[in-house]
Specification:
Two copies of one chain form a homodimer.
Chain A (H helix, E strand, L loop, with lengths): L4 H33 L6 H19 L2 H10 L10 H19 L2 H24 L2 H22 L5 H9 L5 H24 L7 H4 L5 H15 L6 E5 L5 E5 L2 E6 L8 H18 L15 H15 L3 H14 L8 H7 L14 H20 L7 H13 L25 H20 L3 H6 L4 H12 L7 H9 L6 H15 L4
């Protein structure tokens, strides 16, 4: 098949427009990174203006008559099949985003921007005062805006589906409900069994000592290098909250946060962000300057970070190799055995705060949020009912009740940003990571012994080849099916938890 | 007088367009800073694309039909007088740039971009090989493009005027010629007198020791803080070549370069860049997000950097205060007296390389370049004559002859960038700085004793008030007239040199 001259011209102009939009987005990412790392403090009002201008220009280009014309031509019946696969994927992905942009009334977007700018300030204050009541009115407005957004986008079963689609394209309540039912039915008993076991790992030595920032950073950099993070195409810096920000496969910025009285958390978040960063670095460079160079979905992105953070970074195999060099770096740890350390970093304890949660309880935190968000968006819960619902669910799933709203429903920043439908992607990441890692163990000969010898590159190469390289050319669903031979299946994660924690706490199902 | 509704609407839309263009330029500046400081090395091809996209969008907005329409309306007879002074200045300055953009054929711009991208690579290679012949063909093309550019812009006397105007608006050969004649006639004899004096300051201790980077950086930061550089609105980092880059008065980035076997040069370039940076920080914040927030011209900008680098940083008064703390920081200097140090940092010695030149010989380097550039652009010199012309002038003004082209006409990057007419702004900076400093001494009670007590803020406040605050609301000519009561006058610089170096070398006119 031959493409016509008109099609060739159109696809070239289309790609060039997409490249320019992506340049603006990549620049935006750098401005955001700079804001969190090196920007002098007085720079923030100007930075906000610059970011708003870039966002506006990118939006204008995305919804421009040229874009409309290119997509109209390139989506005509018979045309897409004549394109190469990358162009096909580009037309599909850009078309998807274009359609969503066009469905969203501009005044709704603007109202959302204004409301959330205000909401963020209110949330900060309400959290400081531990008073959900202060946040309630603006949260009510945010929910109503999200409902309007869902109506504008359209959905099949639940308005919450339209919100999920923003973060995990194609994900629905119909798919999520059984996953969470499964998790609840398996993890709540696991947690009870752990709590009833005789073993309570000592974690005091993780915090008992002075672990200089420079040494921690150096250790993190060494592990990231061993993992295969390319420091010629990336960096690791410090920021108040760890994050990963990529503008292309050739420039990926990670950050971590260091507490000099905590030997493990900076390393753990470095490995987490390294997983995100290596995903971006691993995408086919031919996809750079297009949205295809990004991770295919937040859930798949999170699977990469969680795999390195947990399946690797909290595994006995990893520490078989790294514990002695950690002890060399921080001699305080010389009095601690490998098993004591391994158990300490895998302690399980229900806690109020999601971001401090262990692997076992983490998804119960997400479950609570999922149920509450869905009920709010579907109109089955009033906003003033949130604190009570939170307390009830925390008691039911975690066995604890927050003593105030800051420990409860005010702890997360997400709602103040207007983000509803985001939380479930954290759980998807955990589930995907276990399923992928299970396949990796089957396909990489002696993976765990390799890790125990400090060879992290065989896992990295496998991830590069199986998951990273395609970027957004394939959807999350296609990738998980191709790589693991089946759709997302929560059983792998449940089995992973039971096996690992069964061994540590000497319990069984 | 009242502005009409149409004018009010137009000025608001005009300002908003100008703001957005400036946001793109400010973002561009940050991308450039990042490129030189923290960008991982593989990031450069993508960075080039991002910068090209931002430049293209800014250019498109600058030459858009909206801009044309706003300027047409706002420049109509009777309208400008009705605007506030800031809007008047904005219309004038944006109009000036718009007119220049409109006069430049797009294909000429593109040819310049392509030619200089190529030329830069050729120049790097030719310089490494010390072969001007290799650079000659592309330099010929660059000169011809500059000539075409000058013809497109138009000029009164010399095509070189149109090039000067790019860097120092309004500057002409007619103004420059007598300045350089004066400098030549005064500095060549001064240099000879210095060379004939019995005194040759010892400089060996400046390079004899190990001066750790961290300590040098800390010393530079302390001096910058004392000068009044606001580290809450700026930073100091390291890069291969020192520079200053501002995106608003609230975010100014300086860089320096450290040689651990050189105790003075990093501090000196920090003070130089600090002078640039404090200019940008000192502009009225109401001018942010407009081109009026930038320095009014390269010459005035350079006057600020040279004043802090030389009039302050190479003065005995400054070191009366700072020498003991430098000795504390670098104990190697404890065996050196204040006078030995002061003389060492003011040694005068003709050298091949401009960027290593002292205050006395520096402008002779610029003079050579000015004469050669002007002759090339005016068609009075062939490109193949450059090396000989260079050798002749170096011998005549400096008394030395380069042994190869890398020490001679290939040393500077500027021509490979296509920049003709830029060099004279360095000399203007030196002249302005002496003239301004002379006025400062008259207007600030006991300025030199203040400096000798470590009080640098009185000079800084004076510069803020007299020069910085107006930004580009006034032209260079207006500022120098307002501040010093007369137009640019080279006598102040000549007197400054004779006084200072007369004392050091015990010579007189």
């Amino acid at each position: 098949m031959q493409t016509s001259t008109a099609t060739t011209a159109s696809i070239m102009a289309f790609q060039s427009l997409v490249n320019e939009i992506h340049d603006l987005n990549a620049t935006q990412a750098l401005l955001g990174w700079d804001l969190e790392t090196y920007m002098p403090e007085k720079g923030s009002p100007m930075r906000a203006k610059q970011m708003a201008t870039l966002a506006k220009l990118a939006h204008n280009m995305m919804t421009s008559p040229e874009m409309e014309e290119h997509l109209r031509h390139l989506r005509q019946s018979g045309i897409p099949e004549k394109l190469d696969t990358m162009s096909q994927a580009l037309v599909r992905e850009v078309g998807r985003v274009y359609d969503k942009s066009r469905k969203t009334p501009l005044e709704l977007l603007q109202e959302m921007v204004e409301t959330t700018a205000e909401a963020h300030k209110i949330w900060v204050e309400a959290r400081a005062n531990k008073q959900f009541k202060q946040f309630e009115p603006v949260l009510r407005k945010i929910i109503s805006l999200n409902q309007r957004f869902a109506e504008a986008q359209g959905y099949e079963d639940s308005p919450y589906d339209a919100l999920l689609d923003e973060y995990e394209p194609g994900l629905t309540v119909k798919q999520l409900d059984p996953l969470f039912v499964k998790l609840k039915s398996e993890i709540v008993p696991l947690l009870k069994a752990i709590q009833n076991s005789d073993h309570t790992p000592d974690t005091s030595f993780l915090f008992d000592g002075f672990f200089p920032a420079e040494k921690q950073l150096q250790f993190s950099r060494q592990v990231l290098t061993d993992m295969g993070f390319d420091f010629e195409a990336g960096r690791l810096d410090l920021s108040a909250h760890p994050f990963s920000s990529g503008s292309s496969s050739l420039d990926v910025r990670l950050t971590t946060r260091i507490d000099e009285h905590d030997v493990f958390s900076a390393l753990s978040s470095s490995m987490h962000e390294g997983g995100h960063g290596m995903y971006e670095q691993g995408v086919n460079p031919a996809l750079n300057r297009t949205p295809l160079a990004e991770g295919t979905s937040l859930g798949i992105h999170e699977s990469q970070s969680r795999m390195w953070e947990n399946q690797v970074g909290r595994s006995r195999a990893f520490w078989l190799h790294y514990f002695s060099s950690l002890q060399e770096t921080f001699p305080e740890l010389k009095r601690v055995t490998l098993d004591q350390f391994y158990h300490a970093i895998n302690r399980v304890r229900p806690s109020y705060i999601r971001v401090e949660a262990d692997e076992v309880t983490y998804n119960l935190h997400i479950l609570m949020r999922y149920e509450i968000e869905k009920a709010l968006i579907e109109g089955d819960m009033r906003v003033d009912e949130v604190p009570d619902a939170w307390a009830t669910k925390a008691q039911e799933y975690l066995g604890i009740t927050p003593t105030n709203d800051a420990e409860g429903c005010l702890q997360d920043i997400h709602w103040s940003h207007g983000s509803f439908g985001y939380f479930p992607t954290y759980t998807l990441g955990n589930l995907y990571s276990a399923q992928f890692f299970n396949t990796a163990k089957k396909q990489i000969d002696g993976l765990e012994s390799k890790i125990a010898q400090g060879n992290l590159q065989s896992l990295k190469s496998w991830l590069n080849r199986e998951i990273h390289w395609v970027g957004k050319m394939e959807t999350a669903g296609t990738i998980v099916q191709r790589v693991t031979g089946e759709p997302l299946n929560a059983q792998y994660f449940v089995d992973y938890l039971w096996t690992k924690y069964g061994e540590i706490f000497k319990i069984s199902r």
